User: Which sequence fits this backbone?
């Protein structure tokens, strides 16, 4: 009883911390995106609220909170209310299996606990893939339930796009799973200790010498992740120049905010997964850059955060650079370029792993 | 495969064009020179000959320059101006604008009325912050237009050599006149 109670209390505390950090990151991201985009386009970004506009996310949040909540005439009220929740919950629920720092256990009141991962389940990556698929339902249902042609078109596009690119995400990570021999994100990260060439993007076995590189899978994953989160240049579901705002055209106030939060939380999530699968998670590029002993978690958290923010910056960078793809280009790129590369990567990785077996 | 084809193929698979574009955006981020002017806090310098809000002008002694000839009304392409001309009381040969209206909602700031005026009674100021909540506030009467002229041109007299030849004539003619307001 006490053991379960301590575990439950600790898990709840972890959930609270992770949710807080994720939502704080999302808040920072909304500002950072506008700032970085502005700087890249020789503008200033938000400058009015607070010094250099740093309080802009708070102002935005307050504005959205006090806005009128409109349900359009002819909308399916139940699905219209359900869709933002369906989009938001899967986006944040994925963080349950993300190891933010070293996976070693600590003992608190006689209970073994992993402090930097809420739940180290042995099918972690499958769990995330399953839940991000549910996120697509939120978009599709939101588009359909709004009773608006723009929303419906956005939802339909999202359906086709998310299905096409989720396939590529799933196939791109198979190579990594083959090399790591596990679906648990903690084990995958631990398999990439300790030098930069042990990360799966280069793919040398710890203590070995054969690079079984996953760089093609890495590129496929990053591109598909951008498409999966509906970001530029794959933002067809919310193409503002064609569809007003796509699937959330009819949403306002907090419901709109939930879609917005979901998009940014998804960005953070796919960045975390990319950092864990291909760039070694909390591992430092070299062992001497990692603090030793009990302080390892500090540098571990630092490296993980640095990698995640690198990907988030990449999202902004792509958005500042690239125009939107046409719909047929999107589909052709997904099925005729990304898919064959991902499949070939699986075959080649399997062969390499067969001839140069790892540990 | 020829070497040119090979080069294009390599450029395609490493996303060469996209990398060039991303280099451009990154260089703008690193050499950050915003062209934004934080408008209400800092204002850009206006060019010479800026055509801003219209105003009616006065002579140095405070008499109105306008002689009520209606040429500005005729010149205006948007029918902004309405002049009600009348004799100067007790002076049958002189006329002035008894009433003068401008509907600034229609004005396109072309400056044709200023060019048309034979006595330089109209001027274009450098005011441009005329956003109002009520459109009717932009229907200006003579007093308002004169007030704009007074605050925009505190020094009333132009150099004589810059003035229209007619001005000297009318100016001389009005020298001995008492102010019209009385």
Assistant:
């Amino acid at each position: 009883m006490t053991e379960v109670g301590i575990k439950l209390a600790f898990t709840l505390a972890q959930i609270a911390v992770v949710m807080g950090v994720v939502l704080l990151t999302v808040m920072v991201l909304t500002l950072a995106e506008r700032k970085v985009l502005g700087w890249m386009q020789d503008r200033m970004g938000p400058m009015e609220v607070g010094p250099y506009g740093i309080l802009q996310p708070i102002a935005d949040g307050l504005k959205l909170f006090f806005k009128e909540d409109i349900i359009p005439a002819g909308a399916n009220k139940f699905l219209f209310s359900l869709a933002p929740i369906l989009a938001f919950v899967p986006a944040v629920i994925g963080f349950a299996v993300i190891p933010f720092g070293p996976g070693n256990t600590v003992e608190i009141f006689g209970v073994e606990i992993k402090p930097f991962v809420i739940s180290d389940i042995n099918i972690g990556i499958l769990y995330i893939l399953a839940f991000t698929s549910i996120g697509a339902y939120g978009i599709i249902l939101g588009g359909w339930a709004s009773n608006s042609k723009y929303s419906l078109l956005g939802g339909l596009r999202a359906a086709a796009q998310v299905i096409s690119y989720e396939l590529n995400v799933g196939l791109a990570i198979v190579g990594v799973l083959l090399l790591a021999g596990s679906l648990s994100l903690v084990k995958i990260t631990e398999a990439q200790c300790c030098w930069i060439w042990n990360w799966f993007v280069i793919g040398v076995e710890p203590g070995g010498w054969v690079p079984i590189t996953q760089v093609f899978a890495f590129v496929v994953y990053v591109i598909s992740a951008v498409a999966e989160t509906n970001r530029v240049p794959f933002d067809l579901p919310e193409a503002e120049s064609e569809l007003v705002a796509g699937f959330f055209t009819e949403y306002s106030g907090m419901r709109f905010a939930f879609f917005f939060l979901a998009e940014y939380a998804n960005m953070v999530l796919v960045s975390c997964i990319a950092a864990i699968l291909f760039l070694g998670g909390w591992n430092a590029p070299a062992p001497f850059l990692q603090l030793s002993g009990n302080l390892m978690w500090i540098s571990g958290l630092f490296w993980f955060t640095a990698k995640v923010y690198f990907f988030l910056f990449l999202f902004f960078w792509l958005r500042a650079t690239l125009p939107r793809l046409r719909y047929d280009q999107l589909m052709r790129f997904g099925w005729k370029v990304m898919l064959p590369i991902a499949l070939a990567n699986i075959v080649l990785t399997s062969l390499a792993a067969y001839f140069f077996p790892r540990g | 495969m020829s070497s040119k084809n090979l080069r294009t193929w390599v450029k395609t698979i490493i996303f060469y064009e996209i990398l060039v574009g991303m280099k451009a955006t990154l260089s703008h981020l690193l050499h950050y020179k915003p062209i934004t002017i934080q408008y209400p806090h800092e204002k850009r310098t206006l060019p010479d000959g800026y055509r801003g809000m219209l105003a009616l002008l006065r002579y140095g002694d405070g008499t109105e320059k306008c002689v009520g000839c209606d040429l500005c009304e005729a010149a205006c392409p948007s029918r902004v101006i309405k002049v009600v001309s009348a004799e100067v009381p007790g002076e049958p040969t002189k006329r002035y604008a008894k009433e003068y209206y401008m509907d600034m909602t229609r004005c396109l700031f072309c400056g044709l009325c200023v060019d048309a005026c034979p006595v330089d009674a109209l001027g274009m100021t450098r005011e441009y912050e005329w956003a109002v909540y009520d459109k009717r506030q932009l229907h200006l009467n003579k007093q308002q237009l004169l007030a704009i002229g007074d605050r925009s041109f505190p020094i009333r007299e132009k150099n004589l050599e810059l003035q229209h030849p007619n001005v000297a004539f009318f100016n001389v003619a009005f020298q001995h006149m008492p102010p019209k307001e009385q």
Summary: The helical segments of chain B are 3-13, 16-30, 71-75, 112-116, 142-152, 165-174. Chain B touches chain A at residues 18, 21-22, 24-26, 28-29, 32-36, 38 (CB under 8 Å). Residues 1-33 of chain B form one domain.
